[in-house]
Amino acid sequence: MKKSTDSIEQLSNLVDTGDPKAVLREVKIIVSSIYPEFNYLLFDRVFFDIVRLFKGEYEGFRKCTTEYHDLRHTMGTLLTLARLLHGSFKNDVRINEKYVFLGLVSALMHDTGYIQSNDDRLGTGAKYMREHVIRSLLYMEKYFSKNGFSLADFNFCRKCITTTEINANINAIDFAAHEEEVAGKMLGTSDLLSQMADRNYLEKLLFLYYEFREGSILGYESELDLLKKTLALYTSTMERITVDMGNYNKYMADHFRERWNIDKDLYSTAIEKNITYLKFILETHEKDYRSYLRRGNVVNTLYRENEARTGL
Asked: Distance between CA 17 and CA 4 in Å, rounded?
């Protein structure tokens, strides 16, 4: 059922990505509108295993310790991919049911490389930032071997997840078929869109700075420096989406028109709002920027973490 647009023309009001069950319900609504007979049996198993993994309820692994690359982000990427697939199908850019399934599984698996094993007690999963994609693939390979996936399934998902590596040369990925390429580029697009359109994106950039620092990602001297450089990163990221990733985001408005009777791309709207507000902060409140980043209790969390580190 389509809802009134009076209260939902803000992306974050449609589905709470902090609620995995709400995300799962919406993904099923979207996918079933494409494939009414879609078999969710194995997908449900993977979905709840990944939720358990991030929550620290999966045998052998710690709870997710990264505040930026967290379960909410994985749920956001999954939901964004489902929406993008739907919008693309409305424009006759279609992939078969098996590839839709594997694409969604890839979204669930793409950041598992940040999760630490139970005996890994040093620091957080952010220390694996440089190799997190490789670690995600290793986790997926073991999981697939235990849960009835084929080697072909793994190779498909491997290529999809590789698109989420920020420095990956998309044109060098050995896609075996056009449908494979479409699914991979849609996942890479969804990973980026879900981050930048998050209502708490600017606040979570503060977490990202500390993940970069722990992961030895150079080029950012402080939280403020990362915020300043985000403006240039936004431009290069949108170019990557439109050029390297195939510009599939142009179909997102068709999803919202069909699903919600909203004639606009709410991702573009949310991203533009975030960037506009970031410019406002940097232009008028650079010295007290934290005071203008109030969502998600991020700043208070950082203060508590700093107190724990310093003992103050």
From this structure: 20
